[in-house]
Design brief:
This protein has 1275 residues and is mainly α. The protein is 67% helix and 1% strand. The protein is built from 67 helices and 4 strands. Strand 2 and strand 3 form a beta hairpin. Helix 2 packs antiparallel against helix 15 and helix 40 runs antiparallel to helix 41. The longest helix has 31 residues. It starts with a helix and ends with a helix. Keywords: Nucleus. One of its GO terms (biological process) is regulation of DNA-templated transcription.
Length: 1275
């Protein structure tokens, strides 16, 4: 049992190391298709399976006749074994098992059984299942151990038995015959390429040599050479199999531990030197053999003592010459052996040659000179691709012997946030490691591999992936150098390149290495962008940097990222110590230092990289989920950086310290360009706009704990401006400076008013106005002399807002003078839209949202006139346009505006030579006397219409710069921005009467064909507002303030638009493309749909209004006109379903028009119209009462209609069915209301005859019902 347990342990130990030679060697040779003959020879290589399996010993009681009988039985089984099905699949193994059984029975019958060795165990050694191989090895070794012990006890019994093979002089005479046979077969099996034969047979050989000490090592070495000798007749696969078999056999011997035992027992044994020499000789046979051969030597060295390694391995014949030739030949395997042996013995040896420095130290080895000496070794290590050569993991272990923990990276990150990196002192080992890594990357990666072939570039990236797990974040800039990043960009920019997938794999490995470590993330992002000028993703067409930026999740990570970007922006790595304005005063030293800095001509980083820094710093806030206080601290740091670099510059040196803020501010030595300053200001505006959009409750606004970024920015701005040596990046004019001061003062006042508390709506108003003032202040610095006038007007409006809030709080009535300022506010807000940035527009929209309820009718008209405005006068339109009447369909203010349409248009037809931008021809809308009285009361003309002058100036400048198309596109953009304000108004005031005015203007703009011709986006936007915000909104205008006249006019116009037929343009087929026809038809359908939906909406508003009888007659008249056109024109696009829906929703219209509708059906000359309209009559009958029908002479009208229908019955059967259906519904309705008698009384005899003829039983049943009623009445 002890023997079996020891064997099991040996199997487990050997199984951990078995197969290394297979991995190192099999992947290298060129794989060729095997011929059938070679396959057969390969199958035989694991075997020479004998024809019978005979026990390894005989007995004295077996006589000669019994032996002959045994041989006959074996021969018989050999001849007839193939008849069985299982024997057909594996005849040799099946035969072995049968022979084993027969021999076992014979031995048992003899009465003296000895241990038997079953050779069928060999078949499982080649199994792909590792568990089967291990079990087979355990069984093999256990049986052979028992046989060998029996052999040692009585050798004569075994010698007199049947031999498995002929006697050979192999030096293994001390072993039992079965053991000798097993050794030979195991050696042969290592050369087999069948499944996992090499691994299984090598494992069995290892354990067998380990457990049976009678096996002589020198004899085994000779046996391996003789058994696996390569002859001249062998070719291709046979040669490879023999060489790999010898390699695996030598590996089994090295791992068995016998060689180490020889050194202990006999220190002067020559076997180990011979063994090493044989392996060196074998490594020269093929290019794929040196590395696994060296691996076998290293396996041996690991088991030996140091003195044995020095005296036996290093003294092996030919090893010294092999080391000496390694540098010139570029032998990476010799370098691997030298490094591992040096690591083992820790003693310098001259036998290793100059491949290692003498005396050896890691610093000397990784020196630039020595690494350059080994350049050819690095290049030649690509011979084992796609696998990485074993020398590289050894190099990684040497260069980074101890993995720097995550905690150390975090500590270094926190230190970098507190003080500059140049002031931090490193320990000596860290400096040595950094120097070694730098030399490794510069000489090997960049110098030897990246500048060479594709295979070597591939190797360089694989080696760096090996280096990453041990790499501290502080060394990322050394590894991700300029050459490496440039090489990655060159590869990734072309998808067809051979290395594209390799580079992608490296980037993925780099991202996986980063993981959730923010220190690594920052280092990788900075390195990639620094060496690509901020364009890594753009050039490589990947989202590497973007994905890394999106994964920041902690405040510390964001702060570290911001700090590194700040250092990169000011080019800290190249910066030198310079005077700091500690005292905020000027002295001679600081002035001289500043002049020296200016004269030194230090070049900073590129504007491209600076622009990326400015853009990416705020971008981390988009997906960042932090607590409000943590997020505010991150926002504050970003805002400070943008303000310092974008708004200010230092007049003395490049560093300034503020004692008030307890902080040092730095600037690049090279002056920051105006484009970068502008970008900083724009990013500040975007940051403030995003903060403003956050939902803030009134309670939070009053809270002392509330951190307001806008207020912090204004205070920070004031503090920096108070430093004498800090100035704005541009000098402001007197007017701009005055506006700047007013904005600061008013913002502070609004902030105090906001914190004081009050009504909720006023607190929101103050908050919105504050952020608009901050945006205007930045815009004033960005575009001086352009926003002085809007700033002044906004300041006035803010003061008026204070007055209004005081009046409301005191409970007094609001006077007209307190309300008129709203028109000025709206006018000013609209004037900011044409050329403003997105943050300005966002602030304008927020202010408009807060004050939307106070917007007056005149303010709305000012915005609506912009939507109606057109740069192209009506007289310039195409003469052949069939849509020339579209403008009049919804022109609600025809009488007052038609004569001034041309005057409203901004004249843009001046000659191109005209360059005087100060002159602009502008005509304003002339309003009716009533409107002018309302709008001009208390308002100055210049204040009222300055927006038109402002727009005209913009459009004229654009025209002079880039032609009329640019002016037109600017106008479209301006309209879209005004539509956003109107949409806000509709959201906050859906039920106010002003909605009708907005609808009328927007509908007219949408019907205007030029709207979609100029901009399809503008048309779609208007269409969306009309449908979603007005027509299909749940709330609608109600009450006495609704303009009834306007409602009736809108109804008439929409009914007219709905009934307008589609007209094709009168042009040749060549000119009229199918695409244009399709677009025209699509637009016609949209207009019809809008008109119908608008009709339903207007009728709903009319229902909710207090209409007089006269006004209701106007509604009836409009619907009558619609029905008249429907019955008289074949081209009328109105469907009966539209009118039926009107009658269903508004029954009072249907009741009033019942007689008119029946008359139209009776007198219609269009048969199909008459039949279609019958559904309308049925719809009216459903809701009419009997008394009203009699009172309105409905019976008489229906008689006439039925007479007309039955006397002029349609020819088409479908229409005849519709007529019968209608008559049946009429008869049913009349019967239900007990009006049958009156109906028949009015029906003429000839009509009754026609009814009986065409309606048949339908009319007879109706008529019989009257007679039955008479009988009941008489009874």
């Amino acid at each position: 049992m002890g023997s079996k347990k020891r064997t099991s342990n040996l199997v487990a130990e050997a199984n951990e190391v078995v197969g290394v030679e297979e991995e190192n060697a099999v992947t290298n040779p060129i794989k060729k298709k095997m011929k059938k003959g070679k396959e057969k020879s390969g199958d035989r290589a694991d075997g020479d399976v004998p024809t019978a399996s005979i026990p390894s010993a005989g007995t004295n009681s077996i006589k000669s006749m019994e032996r002959k009988k045994e041989r006959k039985t074996v021969d018989k089984l050999r001849r007839h074994g193939a008849s069985d099905a299982d024997a057909q699949e594996n005849p040799i193994m099946n035969l072995d098992s049968k022979v084993n059984e027969t021999r076992g029975q014979m031995v048992a019958s003899s009465g003296n059984a000895l241990p038997a060795f079953h050779i069928d165990v060999f078949k499982d050694l080649a199994s792909a299942d590792a568990s089967l191989r291990e079990a087979a090895v355990e069984r093999l070794v256990a049986e052979l151990q028992e046989v060998h012990r029996a052999y040692e006890g009585n050798k004569e019994l075994f010698e007199s038995g049947l031999k498995l093979e002929a006697e050979k002089d192999d030096g293994l005479k001390d072993c039992a015959p079965s053991v000798r046979y097993a050794i030979r077969r195991l050696v042969r099996g290592t050369s087999s390429s069948r499944e996992c034969a090499r691994q299984g047979f090598a494992l069995g050989l290892t354990l067998l040599i380990c457990t049976i000490s009678s096996i002589k090592v020198d004899s085994l070495l000779k046996l391996i050479v003789e058994t696996l000798e390569v002859s001249a007749s062998m070719k291709g696969e046979e040669v490879r199999d023999c060489l790999l078999g010898r390699l695996f056999s030598y590996g089994a011997l090295a791992r068995s531990g016998r060689l180490n035992g020889l050194c202990v027992s006999d220190p002067n044994t020559p076997v180990i030197k011979e063994f090493v020499s044989v392996l060196l000789t074998l490594s020269t046979k093929k290019s794929y053999l040196p590395e696994p051969a060296v691996t076998v030597i290293l396996e041996l060295a690991e088991k030996m003592q140091v003195e044995h390694v020095l005296n036996h391995i290093l003294e092996a014949p030919g090893l010294s010459e092999w080391f000496n030739d390694a540098v010139g030949a570029g032998n990476p395997d010799a370098l691997l052996l030298a490094l591992k042996v040096r690591e083992k013995v820790s003693v310098d040896s001259l036998n290793i040659g100059n491949i290692l420095p003498y005396p050896f130290s890691p610093t000397r080895f990784f020196s630039s000179d020595h690494l350059t000496l080994l350049t050819q070794c690095w290049k030649n290590s690509t011979s084992c691709q796609p696998r990485v050569h074993s020398v590289w993991p050894v190099m990684v272990n040497m260069i980074l012997p101890v993995m720097i923990s995550q905690a150390e990276d975090v500590v270094s990150a926190s230190n970098s946030l507190k003080k500059n990196r140049r002031n931090r002192k490193s320990s000596l080992p860290d400096e040595e490691i950094e120097k070694n890594v730098q030399n490794f990357c510069e000489v090997i990666i960049e110098g030897a591999l990246l500048t060479s072939s594709h295979d070597r570039k591939h190797l360089a990236l694989d080696v760096l992936l090996l280096l990453l797990p041990r790499l501290p974040a502080s060394l990322v800039p050394v590894v991700l150098s300029y050459k490496l990043v440039q090489g990655l960009m060159d590869i990734l920019s072309t998808k067809d390149s051979w290395l594209f997938k390799v580079a992608h794999h490296f980037i993925k490995g780099l991202s996986d290495w980063v993981g959730d470590d923010d220190v690594r993330r920052v280092a990788v992002i900075v390195a990639l962008q620094k060496h690509s000028n901020g364009k890594f993703d753009f050039i490589t067409k990947t989202k590497t940097v973007k994905a890394l930026l999106a994964d920041f999740k902690t405040e510390s990570g964001c702060m570290l990222f911001i700090q590194n970007l700040m250092n990169l922006f000011v080019d800290e790595g190249n910066a030198s110590d310079e005077p700091s304005d500690q005292s905020q005063t000027t002295d001679d030293n600081s002035e001289m230092g500043s002049l020296e800095d200016k004269d030194s001509g230090v070049m900073g980083i590129s504007d491209s990289l600076k622009s990326w820094i400015v853009e990416s710093m705020p971008s981390i806030l988009k997906s960042l989920k932090l607590e409000p206080e943590e997020k505010f601290r991150v926002q504050k740091e970003i805002l400070k950086f943008l303000a310092v670099q974008g708004l200010f510059s230092a007049s003395l040196g490049s560093e300034v310290t503020s004692f008030e803020l307890h902080e040092k501010f730095r600037w690049p030595k090279a002056a920051t360009s105006s484009a970068i300053c502008k970008m900083c200001i724009e990013q500040m505006q975007s940051l403030l706009a995003s903060v403003q959009k956050m939902d803030v409750s009134p309670v939070l606004l009053q809270s002392s704990e509330f951190s307001d970024l806008g207020s912090f920015f204004m205070q920070f701005l004031s503090t920096l401006r108070s430093i004498p040596s800090v100035s704005l990046f541009r000098v402001l004019s007197d007017e701009d400076e005055e506006a700047y001061q007013k904005l600061q003062t008013m913002e502070a006042s609004l902030y105090k008013q906001e914190r004081r508390g009050g009504p909720e709506d006023f607190m929101y108003k103050y908050h919105a106005l504050r952020y608009l003032l901050i945006q205007l202040l930045l815009q004033l610095l960005l575009h001086p002399a352009e926003f002085t006038e809007p700033v002044s007007e906004i300041i006035i409006c803010c003061k008026k807002a204070f007055v209004l809030s005081d009046v409301l709080e005191s409970g007094e009535d609001v006077s007209d003078s307190d309300v008129l300022w709203m028109d000025v506010l709206v006018d000013t807000l609209v004037s900011l839209l044409p050329q403003s940035s997105a943050p300005i527009r966002s602030a304008v929209e927020e202010v408009f949202r807060c004050f939307s309820y106070n917007v007056t009718h005149d303010g709305l008209l000012q915005m609506l006139r912009i939507i109606k405005r057109d740069l192209k006068p009506a007289r310039h339109r195409e003469a052949d346009s069939d849509d020339e009447d579209d403008d009049d369909l919804l022109d609600i203010e025809e009488d007052e505006d038609d004569d001034t349409d041309e005057a409203q248009t901004v004249e843009t037809g001046e000659s191109e030579e005209q360059t005087d931008d100060s002159e602009a021809v502008v005509e304003v809308d002339k309003e009716s006397p009533e409107e002018s009285d309302e709008s001009d009361d208390g308002m100055d003309d210049d204040a009222m219409f300055k927006m038109d002058t402002y727009l005209a100036q913009i459009f004229k400048e654009k025209k002079n710069q880039a032609g009329g198309e640019t002016a037109q596109s600017q106008l479209v953009l301006f309209k879209l921005r005004v539509l956003s304000l109107l949409e806000i108004y509709l959201q906050t005031n859906p039920g106010r009467p002003h909605v009708l005015t907005i609808y009328s203007y927007l509908a007219r703009a949408f019907v205007n064909p030029q709207t979609t011709e100029i901009s399809e986006q503008l048309g779609q936007r208007i269409w969306g507002i009309l449908n979603k915000k007005i027509v299909k909104s749940k709330e609608y205008p109600k009450g006495a303030d609704v303009d009834n006249v306007l409602l009736v006019t809108l109804l008439e116009r929409n009914l007219k638009l709905a009934s307008r037929p589609f007209k094709k343009k009168k042009s040749s087929a060549a000119d009229q493309s199918k695409k244009k026809q399709s677009a025209a038809w699509k637009r016609h359908k949209m207009l019809g749909s809008l008109a119908q939906d608008s009709t339903f909406w207007i009728l709903k508003v009319i229902d909710a209004s207090n209409f007089s009888e006269d006004e209701r007659h106007s509604v009836f008249h409009a619907v009558k006109n619609l029905l008249t056109g429907y019955f008289c024109s074949k081209k009328c696009p109105i469907k009966s379903g539209f009118v039926r829906e009107i009658f269903r929703r508004r029954p009072w219209i249907a009741h009033n028009l019942f007689e008119f509708l029946v008359d139209q059906c009776s007198s219609s000359k269009l048969e199909f119209r008459r039949v279609e309209a019958l559904e309308l009559v049925i719809e009216v009958l459903k809701s009419m009462a009997a008394k009203k029908m009699v009172k309105t002479q409905g019976i008489q009208k229906l008689n006439v209609l039925i007479k007309e229908l039955v006397t002029n019955m349609p020819e088409k059967q479908s229409r005849q069915a519709d007529v019968r259906k209608f008559c049946g519904k009429v008869f049913q309705t009349i019967s239900a209301n007990n009006l049958t008698k009156a109906f028949l009384k009015e029906l003429m005899p000839e009509a009754q005859t026609a009814c009986e003829s065409h309606l048949g039983e339908l009319f007879l049943n109706f008529k019989n019902g009257v007679q039955q009623q008479k009988v009941k009445d008489s009874a």
